[in-house]
């Protein structure tokens, strides 16, 4: 009977780690596929096969910080009389606007790359608001800090 297993391209077989029922054996390893011929296996027999693989350096993300999202563009100036804050960003990313009183409003950047949030009743002259964008699989962007006119 033939045992066969395939592991992904980010791993490699650890030499000397292949064991069958607790005994070291030597399998064949080619292109991320490991094979081993089991000579005798009777009906209802149980065997235990173990081996180790290690993540390769090229694929290891140990100690690597996730990439930051792109900083969104905010159309300025922002005034207390304008009920809508808008800008552009990466399509599908989430934009979060945080107002001076801590209220947050979020939206998703549209297919055309634009976004907007309603600020009705939340803006006063001199208030500081922040805008952050988060793309899928990335850390949030650095904040855009704006003072309301």
Which CATH class of the largest domain applies here? Mainly Beta
The gross shape turns out to be rod-shaped
CATH superfamily of the largest domain: Immunoglobulins
- Strand fraction: 35-45%
Helix content: under 10%
How many helices? The count is 0
What profile does the largest beta sheet have? 4 strands, antiparallel
Based on the coordinates given, report the CATH architecture of the largest domain. Answer: Sandwich
Question: What name does CATH use for the topology of the largest domain?
Answer: Immunoglobulin-like
Instruction: Tell me how many strands there are.
Output: 15
Tell me the span between the first and last alpha carbons. Answer: 77 Å
Strand arrangement across the biggest beta sheet: 12-11-14-15
Integer tally of domains: 2
How would you sum up this structure, described in words?
- There is one protein chain.
- By secondary structure, the protein is mainly β.
- The protein folds into 2 domains: 2-55, no CATH class; 73-147, Immunoglobulins (Immunoglobulin-like), CATH 2.60.40.
- The chain is 0% helix and 39% strand.
- The protein contains no helices and 15 strands.
- The protein has strands spanning 2-6, 11-13, 19-20, 23-24, 28-30, 33-37, 49-50, 53-55, 73-74, 84-88, 94-98, 104-108, 114-118, 128-134, 144-147.
- The strands form 5 sheets. The chain has a 4-stranded antiparallel beta sheet, with no helix packed on it. Strands 1-6-5 form a 3-stranded antiparallel beta sheet, with no helix packed on it.
- It is rod-shaped.
- The chain starts with a strand and ends with a strand.
